[in-house]
Amino acid sequence: MKHRCARRRYSSALLLDALIGLFPVVGDIITTTLSLFIVHEAYQLGAPGHVIARMLGNVALDGVFGAVPLVGDAFDVLWRANRRNVRLLREWLEHERRANVVLSNSPEIDLS
Predict the structure, then answer these.
(1) Got the DSSP string for 39-75?
(2) Which of 89, 102, 106, 111 has the highest CB neighbour count under 10 A?
(3) What is the pTM (predicted TM-score) of this model?
(4) Cβ burial 37-73 (10 Å sphere, 16+ → b, else e)
């Protein structure tokens, strides 16, 4: 249930990113902030440092190259940092889910 709510928030952020990005400078600042929201949510969910670092790298590239007039808009369309970050988060969540299933299905060992 918790992950479904997060999924709705991410899809809203992706839509807003595309619309707000049309406004120069202010739009770039706002969209970078929205991108950082996804990274913050990943941190709150307990994503490991290497996932957060990759996500921050995606946001940094998007923020730097996205700020260049015209070329930045094309870069935003091709790079899609938010989609990459949501994919990274989903892959990590799936990995965690599988790890928990394996742990819960393993036999208990009595060490006494």
Answers:
(1) HHHHHHTT--HHHHHHHHHHHHHHHHHHTSTTHHHHH
(2) 89
(3) 0.72
(4) ebbebbeeeebeeebbeebeebbeebbebbbeeeebe
Place of tokens 């249930």: 1
What is the maximum span of the chain, computed from C-alpha positions, in angstroms? Answer: 68
CA distances from 40 to 20, 90, 112 (A): 20, 14, 42
Q: Which two tokens stand for residue 36?
A: 């950082």
Amino acid occupying residue 76: D
